[in-house]
Amino acid sequence: MPERGVLPIAPATYYSRAAILRDPELASERAKRDVTDREEIKRVYKASGKRYGARKIWHALRREGKDIARCTVERLMKALEIQSVVRGGKVITTNPDAAQPCPDDKVNREFFAPMPNRLWVSDFTYVSSWQGMVYVAFVIDVFARKIVGWRVSTSMTTSFVLPSRQIAAQSPAG
Q: What is the pTM of this model?
């Protein structure tokens, strides 16, 4: 047997595996169970639209009356190289362009105002919702440390951010 001389395993291991390949009844009880469990896991995984992870597959098999440990489902899913769908993904919110100049720092990083409405700062952020990302632009009065204007949109554009300043100017606080 030329394979045995090439593989870095003990001869007893090689012959034991070869015997199991010839006669599957020689396999351990766990190995025999694993064969049927793999098929069950693949069946439930495909029935879920390839979305279920180990926990949900384990629950589905238990509901069907299959006595299987969750760690066994995890181990066999890893061996089968299948995994659940992970909800969401990383949202890229900025695409820096080296050709564009950085905006000027008009306040020299000194966020202090002696009176209301002398200094406003603005920013925007995003919030994940079931329908997708929602962007919120807001203007803050530095003296009062309160939001004096804000706007919500489903797109992140300049035309969405700039009107929040106009809204702040029209508000009673602004």
A: 0.48
Per DSSP, the three-state class of 24 is: helix
DSSP string, 28-60: -HHHHHHHHHHHHHHHHHHHTTS---HHHHHHH
Span 5-46, pLDDT tens digits: 676 888 888 898 899 889 988 989 999 999 999 999 999 999
Structure tokens at 132: 């997708």
CA distance 68 to 14: 30
pLDDT of 123: 84
Q: Name every residue whose Cβ is closer than 8 Å to that of residue 167 and which is 6 or more positions away in sequence.
A: 139, 149, 150, 151
Q: At residue 137, what are phi and psi to the nearest 5 degrees?
A: -105, 140
Report the SS3 class of residue 137: strand
Q: Are 141 and 116 in contact (CB under 8 A)?
A: yes
